[in-house]
Amino acid sequence: MPISRTWSIRILCCWLIAGSFFMTLRPAACAEGDATVAESASPAEPLPTLAEMVYQSGTLSQQLATLKTRTADINSLQKLDQQLDQAKLRVEQFDSRLTAMNADDLQSYQQLASIKSDIRGTRETVARLAATLAENINPVETWRRQWLDRKKKWAQWHAQLGDDLALESVASAFARATAEIDEALNLVTRKLEPMLAIQQKIGDINARIDSQRERIDAMMAQQRGDALRGGTPTIFSRDYLRQLIDLSHEPGKIAKPMAFTEKGFFADKAWVIVLQVVVFALLLGRLRRHGPELINQANRRFLGKRPVSVALLVPIFAFTFLYGTPPPLWRMLILSLAGVATARLMTHFVAERWIRRAIYILVTVMILFQGLLILGIPLALVRLFILVWTGAGVAYFGWRVRKEIAGEKPGWQVWALRLVTLMFTIILVTDIIGFSGFATQLMDGAMRTAMLLLMGWAMIHLTRTGLEIGMESLPMGSFRFLRNNANEILARLIFISNAVIIFFVVANLLVAWKLYAIPADAVQAVLSFGLSMGGHHITLGLVLVAGMILYGAFVLSWSLQGVLMENVLSRGHMDTGARLSIVRLVHYALILIGFLIALSAMGFELQNITIIGGALGVGIGFGMQNIVNNFVSGLILLFERPIKVGDVVQLGDGQQGRVTNLGLRATTVQTFDRAEIVVPNGDLISSQVTNWTLGDRSMRLTIPVGVAYGSDVETVTWVLMAVATESDKVLKDPQPMVLFLNFGDSSLDFQLRVWIADFNERRIIQSALIREIDRRFRIEGVEIPFPQRDLHLRSVDDTAADRLNSKEAPCPPAAVPESE
User: Fold this and answer.
1) pLDDT band at 33 (very low <50, low <70, confident <90, very high)
2) CB contact at 8 A, 766 and 727
């Protein structure tokens, strides 16, 4: 069947369109292949002229001199190598400590945690040394590659020259270039070789550290598993009694000898001890000097009543982390001082005596228990210690529960005592039935939890009081912003400090219950928790960082707005509306910058932000037009400033008021009845709004006046003009004006027109002028008439006419109800 001409044209057009489409795809699809072919087919670098070769051989001398100067500027690696040797020695000591570890020792878990913390510190030290080495080795490697490229280039030129090498100048240039390139490469190689050797040493140390960390993690996991298994005799069995008898025959095995400090501890950490002692002495002296003054202040009375405890806790809380991992006995000393000081401080805030005694007993038991573990007391004696104290705890706190219930104490207090009793009961039962490792772990975790909560509360209270005293001592005389916002600034600082303290208390609680070995591991594990979204791994740490950035942007914006409004812009003659527009623009700019930085901190790139913007565009197209319209209108109001804060406006519905807030989405107008009207910014831009105070706050005030017929017009005019000209609130330019407007129904109608300087005073000035007009009219005998009307009756009922004509109309008789 023949194909029609129309169909032939259609088929031809389809082929042309398809061919054009594939031709447009050809460059994109084959770009990489074409680039590869072009690269492979690119001609070699053209051979320079002989003159250029001779010239470049001369520049090599200068480049060689520059290289010598730069290599001489590189710091000596001897100190770096010595620090690596010390790190290597510490790593070998870690191996010795792990080998000498007694797996059955109750303190072995704490020793492993201490070694892991030391290993972490050594790893960080090695990482810093590696970064320092990288700063030196990277430029040397770059110089080596550059000179190798020069050597290759000159070798290619030498191979291509041929007969031109017979020229003496060319041959001399090549000889000089070859010698200088070889000298440069030798110089770089001499610098690079020791660096690479040190790099190899760093790699070996890191490999041993990784091996030790894996070994420690395996040992700690094994100990955590062993603690949940039994294997020890019940506490009332003959085997346990035999263990106690054996210890009585060999008292030397009860406690193992232990040095108070390790070798080199005082040499390395003496400055920390001196710092703590100095802070303690200074703080104690200051507290005792101001003791009577502090005692008279209810919120700070504890500073005057417990000066030694406060002076001890501040340097312990502030500087103990500088020790890193102190020796066990030194750690025990610090823990004891902190525990006693915390107990003394806590008892000042507790009114009930039994709670005070419980706190002191808790601290005593905690110190004794940690001492048993550190001194390596045999497990049999530790079990006996746990039995005595947990049994006493169950009996005492059980009795307190019954007493608190009988005394109708708050429910939370009763449940807290029940929880404490339950914990002591579990520890007691596990210790009796032979799960001594589990009982020891529970006892240790419970004691540490109680002390961490007490110390955390003490830290929060001390930090709050310290911030309050610090804020009061700041010189705020010239800083109006600080003076007016001191309470809010203090509240923000307290919130931040409390959040930091709670975070670290939680991290140490995780360590106390052996979920993690050291607080750094707990913090890292918590912050690394997250999920993957679209190829990005968003962790809790990134979210916290983004949140802190946004919070910092808001705080910075709030602070900068206050400083600009109260300390900077207020010094000029700028009105309130202009100042508010400037600070609002600064606020929006800082929030936008903070938002972008927060997104960048979370791993979002510009491309992802563009995608988010596209999604927002789709959302705007579906239902956010009004929000965006109001937002853009708010920006227009800020830039063009047709309405400012403080302006008196009249809206389209006739309501009048003063603008009190110009927001991003809506503007707040307060009527003169103090009603708040929230007007969307889009309505202010799209509808007619009367601004009485936009360009000029002056206005014309019109006062209508009516006087009785027969009054002297000139006298009325003179009185009104005199009242206007004698008032200091009326402007002289434009001049006041009195107009005789009309013959009214009851009066001669005049109008007094005056101009005043401030629109906001219009009602006050109008009232004052009217009062003065009334007073002057009374003096001049001018009458202000009442409204008068003449009533003409066209027809009247006869009865009504008789009554109107009579002098006294009789009253109508009262209606008499009919009797049934």
Assistant:
1) very low
2) no
Which distant-in-sequence residues (6+ apart) come within 8 Å of 410 by Cβ? none
pLDDT digits (tens, 9 = 90+) for 638-692: 777 788 888 888 888 888 888 888 777 888 999 888 899 998 888 888 888 888 8
Phi, psi (rounded to 5 degrees) for 533:
-140, 115
Evaluate the CA torsion angle 398, 400, 402, 404 in order and state its sign.
negative
Q: CA-to-CA distance for 451 and 112, rounded, in angstroms?
A: 22
- What does the alpha-carbon distance between residue 266 and residue 271 come to, in Å, rounded to a whole number? 8
Alpha helices in 409-435 (DSSP H): 411-432
Confidence band of 819 (pLDDT split at 50, 70, 90): very low
E strand spans, 443-539? 530-533, 536-539
User: Per the confidence metrics, is the pTM higher than 0.70?
Assistant: no
What are 83's two structure tokens? 């620090």
Of the candidates 501, 272, 255, the one whose C-alpha atom is nearest the C-alpha of residue 375 is: 255
Q: Is the dihedral of CA 783, 736, 657, 563 positive or negative?
A: negative
Give exposure, 505-544, as e/b (b: 16+ Cβ within 10 Å).
bebbbbbbebebbbbbbbbeebbeeeeeeeeeebbebbbe
Which of 701, 704, 760 minimizes the C-alpha distance to 731? 701
Query: Rounded CA gap, 86 and 129, in Å?
Result: 12
Q: How many CA atoms lie within 13 A of 773 on its CB side?
A: 23
The Cα angle at residue 213 between residues 210 and 217, in degrees rounded to 5: 140
Q: Are 440 and 386 in contact (CB under 8 A)?
A: yes
What lies within 8 Å, CB to CB, of 54 at 6+ separation is 169, 170, 173
What pLDDT score was predicted for residue 168? Answer: 82
**What distance in Å separates the CA atoms of residue 207 and residue 119, rounded to the nearest whole number?**
12
Calpha distance 119→206 (Å, rounded):
10
Tokens of 289: 């000097």
Which helix H or strand E contains 748, and what residues bound it? strand 748-756
Residue whose tokens read 């965006």: 628
pLDDT in tens, 346-383: 888 888 888 889 899 999 999 999 888 887 788 888 89
